[in-house]
Amino acid sequence: MRKMKRVLAVALAGVLVLSMVACSNKSSKEKDTETATTEETTSPDNSATEESEAPAATEASITGSITGSGSSALLPLAQDAADKFKATNPDVSITLNAGGSGEGLKQVAEGTVDIGNSDVEAEAKLEADQAKDLVDHKVCVITMAPIANKDVSEKVKSLTKEQLIGIFTGKTTNWKDVGGPDEAVVLVTRPETSGTRALFTKYALDGKEEASNASLETDDSGTLLQSVASQKGAIGYVALSYLVNNDTVGTIGIDGVEPTLENTYNGTYPVWGYEHMYTKGEAKDAAKAYIDYVMSDDYGSQMEALGYNVASKMTVTR
Amino acid sequence: MFKNGMFQKEYLGRTIVTICGFFMIVLTFFIGIFLVYKGSGTFTKYGHSITEFLFSSEWDPADNFTGGGKVGAAIYIFGSISTCMLALCIATPFSIASAIFMTMISPKLGKRIYRPAVEIFVGIPSVVYGWIGLTILVPVIRDRMHQGFGFSVLAASIVLAVMIFPSITTVVADAIENVPKEYIEGSYALGSTRWQSIYRIIIPTAKTGVLTGVILGLARAFGEALAVAMVIGKMRAFPKNIFSPTSNLTAAITSDMGGAANGGEYNIALWTMALLLFVISLLFIFIVHFITRSGEKHA
């Protein structure tokens, strides 16, 4: 019994050390670590057969590991693209995290991750000397839509910009003032440092600050959606990608223009912005292949199905 | 495995234990140093006063490196204090009553069912409490009691109360069990009823333990982030009453820590809040030690 315990303890310690080694290798950026970790973690005879097969199969394809972090608005797209990319390039491992644009930019500037996803340009969140090495890839365009509880959106299909500003700055407090039902306006917003909020404030509210002292704040767009759907008289905003396959809330047009992918393409709908994937220095190897894939025409239709705009199809630029 | 018996018998275990012990001390120390290093930036790098941070309610830090925003965190501080105090008011009577029930009134049931049941509460992850609060408490306050948004100080306090109830109960129950048997028997011998000896003898004797339990509960409530953030509404305004939403320190940190520019005024202001939380919990621990020590002197 005691002997068994000892063996178990040694085995556990071994596993622990191995996993530590594996982890540290993954985060370090040398190209050949991927093969090194597989050698360590698989049993000898197993890796031998793999190695003998590997050169033939991977001659033309891409190998390596990619790590990414940042914007939660871009994550669903990045994750979907990663799954599709891995289907054709099985030797690439991609690890993606949310955590916010600020965090993503910080990590890519420090070299902790290969790709930093961001809703805003790096210069806005990093000091100049940190941002200067980063290379921007505008992978897609994201459209933000005002959304409201169903009982409001059934009557109010569109608001003028002044009305929208009035509502979000807390001046308009009842929906009947803008042609809606007799219900109090409930503002549901995102945190001040959110990229979604920054875009919405800039292009839908002409830079007027939202009334933070009268709004319910939610950490992520999913929760916001749920809040707006369950709260009478609620209004908020999310990216169109959150409204694919979701009809629990209604969208509201701005100055008569519906928030749709088409209206963003033709330049009539104003609330949109680029989503960025940043790399430290020019993207290379696996990361480059992945970003190229995300921006490729092949992936474009899938991108639109997920509710994002393809950057190359924009008729207007910023 | 080791030939050297003496080494294995004495020094191996001792070394491991000592290393682990020192590691914890060093870790706590470094977390403290790190928080001071990061959090003091608001006052040194961006030149705000401590008074502004603690007592001003104007919160508008600039999300850049030039600064010049406002860092008044009074709303968050007040939100934390008010929800925790209310939670304590709700939880403490229940905790003391439960502790008395499971130690004095029905010790058999207490030991076999009640205590394990209370201990299960401790193991439930906070996100579960928060989620239950969000799906049951918030709609009930909004739709049944017709009070505003449902997201409120009350909802946050109830969730917190449920979370700290087990910690307080266990500490208080331990304290009651440590009351010397002679005291209780003496009181019975003098002709007091069970209830008389409970509130005249046992509670006063176990006072130190009760206070310790309450403060540990308070410390836990102060640091809880997730569950509170889900039901408090995060509106940056002082609550008008217990049915209105507000925000607190932990919710403010979690919602903006990922988005704020690293090292910018906003980010540093959040670190200052983290430092404040650390200082508050240190304070609580000191109070607990102070109470325990003065309790020992009296006994």
UniProtKB/TrEMBL annotation, chain A:
Localization terms from the record: Cell membrane
Listed Low complexity bias regions: 35-47, 54-65
Record protein name field: Phosphate-binding protein
Region entry Disordered, spans: 26-65
Membrane topology label: Lipid-anchor
Principal subcellular localization: membrane
GO CC annotation, single: plasma membrane
Keyword Cell inner membrane belongs to the record: no
Superkingdom of source: Bacteria
Pfam family, one: PBP_like_2
From TrEMBL, chain B:
GO biological process entries: phosphate ion transport
Gene Ontology CC entries for this record: plasma membrane
One Pfam family named in its UniProt record: BPD_transp_1
Keyword RNA-binding listed: no
InterPro entries referenced in this protein's UniProt entry, alphabetically: MetI-like, MetI-like_sf, Phosphate_PstC, Phosphate_Transport_Permease
GO molecular function ontology, one term from the record: phosphate transmembrane transporter activity
Transmembrane spans: 12-37, 73-105, 117-141, 153-173, 210-232, 268-291
Annotated membrane topology: Multi-pass membrane protein
Keywords for this protein: Cell membrane, Membrane, Phosphate transport, Transmembrane, Transmembrane helix, Transport
Compartment(s) of residence: Cell membrane
Major localization class: membrane
Cross-referenced SUPFAM superfamilies: MetI-like (SSF161098)
Family designation: Belongs to the binding-protein-dependent transport system permease family. CysTW subfamily.
Protein name: Phosphate transport system permease protein
